[in-house]
């Protein structure tokens, strides 16, 4: 996007340097005037739209001329008068005194109103008005969610004050600090959003072939300590099966004492590590993480990949799991104190620890990375499910004391390998509570002052995805990787409505900006009133039956021209806080993941951006987004032939983003977590 910090001299033709001391109006008065004008315009347009929807469905004998009221006869005229009566009632409700009509007069004969109706029809487009979808088309799920959130926030911010018992919003500096902390956690130099992850797999019998989300009981066979015979065991141990319990005891007995590395030596110190172990040469197991797609889940979160789309085309770098050890930590004092694993090769990136179903208490696995901590406490379900954790090699971790029972684990070393082109990623099942980001975001949302009135949280995807391709709808969100997958999964698990959508890297309507900011500057200098200009995207919103809600949707979905430059002007001239217009800044978001398109018809190079977007790339303007990260990758969104001094191709670009509708604090307290524990990324 074009930098908003660049210098320009657009005010040169409006006033001279000597005029700066003679301002008649303040920036606050300018904002108040613009807001009042746009609110009144939105209220009127809401009333007109509802009338036009009803009018469109009334038969007209005047060659389908919508506003030729002489063509409505008989029953059609009765319906017309009913619609007109409703229009008058709506206008009197929202804009008292606007019509200034005597009681009983015909509203459709009011010249002021009919002129407004004609303007509105021209604005919406007669072709659109003739379509049956006008006024009844449904919102996309994301569009409705975001507009509802914006309307709710607007209503709350417009209400009078707060009671003493209500929490105050965070100060601007505290809010910025919280957002900065979240952004650094996700995409900073020491990003920690995905240093660890985990999940669980249920146990079942007589499973059909190809089952990936349930495991049969795990069978283990091993040689005795002296190599004289082979033993077998099945986990979980049945409470009534004495033989199974004896087999588990035999497994524990046949384990060697586990050592740990210190310098170049391997030593035994029960105060530092007390556990048993079997090397892979001594045992076999029916369990493998690839069979249950655990490796795929870990790969999508932890495998290193590149932000360049050319290096990351849907085949991701894949992971190979190499069995390293079987370990047993037994009560009452099995443990392993803080340590960092030594990678076995340059391609090793981490470890996978699989806890087999065997009852125990204690034994919590704690993983640390750059001051962030994730705990894996498996004791509560240790007797009935397989549980696992994966983490990077540079993570410090420890195993707290096992106070009772036997904690049996398989440890795998994870190596990164190159892979050929793959297919669309499958659905991912992870436990978001095991992600490092979970606690940070949960704590933020639990703060009464953080986005107290609700709002929209935006995160630019860290990785490159072909989000404008024909496969985009299948790829996202299920194909999210690393920090992107963590962000999306954690938001969903906390009950936050999140969507993956493209945001337009927009170009600026310089001509429209010049005109609009000129009007604003003349208002500041002379108090000269003007009609604010704005882009309305989409040009037609589905008409809400709730009149109050509909006009607010119109108001919030309109982009004010001149905002960018007047904010910069205020900053340069130190007239007032340039953030005064911050709530009118926003972005164009695709209503869904649009496929790249090319229009070979010729259009005017100087046409407003909003018209180009409306024609080629259905979008929604969303103001006041709280951005957590900067855009890193882009794709061509649409192109068209532009007619200027010489014909050229005009191309717009978009970035993939995760957009979340954060509810107000009183609706997210306590934080609404999903009971299932797992988040499925199979769709929106």
Write the layout of secondary structure elements.
Blueprint: H1 27-56, H2 75-94, H3 111-124, H4 126-130, H5 141-158, H6 172-187, E1 196-203, E2 214-215, E3 218-223, E4 230-235, H7 242-254, E5 256-257, E6 260-262, E7 265-267, E8 273-274, E9 276-278, E10 283-285, H8 294-302, E11 318-330, E12 334-340, E13 348-355, E14 360-362, E15 365-369, E16 372-376, E17 385-392, E18 396-417, E19 429-430, H9 436-445, E20 455-460, H10 472-475, H11 482-493, E21 497-505, H12 510-526, E22 534-536, H13 547-556, E23 558-560, H14 563-573, E24 586-590, E25 597-604, H15 609-616, E26 619-623, E27 626-627, E28 635-643, E29 648-662, E30 679-680
Parallel strand pairs: 1-2, 20-27, 25-28
Antiparallel strand pairs: 1-17, 3-4, 3-10, 5-9, 6-7, 8-12, 9-11, 11-18, 12-18, 13-17, 13-18, 14-18, 15-16, 15-18, 19-30, 20-29, 21-29, 22-23, 24-26, 28-29
Helix pairs in contact: 1-2, 1-3, 1-13, 5-13, 6-9, 12-14
Overview of the structural elements:
It is built from 15 helices and 30 strands. The strands form seven sheets. Strands 1, 2, 5, 8, 9, 11, 12, 13, 14, 15, 16, 17 and 18 form a 13-stranded mixed beta sheet that branches. Strands 20, 21, 25, 27, 28 and 29 form a six-stranded mixed beta sheet that branches. It has a three-stranded antiparallel beta sheet with strand order 4-3-10, with helices on one face. Helix content is 29%, strand content 26%. The model is unreliable at 1-18, 305-316, 420-424 and 674-684 (pLDDT under 50). With 684 residues, the protein is an alpha+beta fold. A hairpin with a 4-residue loop joins strand 28 and strand 29. Helix 5 (141-158) crosses helix 13 (547-556). The protein folds into three domains: 1-136, no CATH class; 143-194 and 435-509 and 561-684, no CATH class; 196-429, Sandwich (Jelly Rolls).
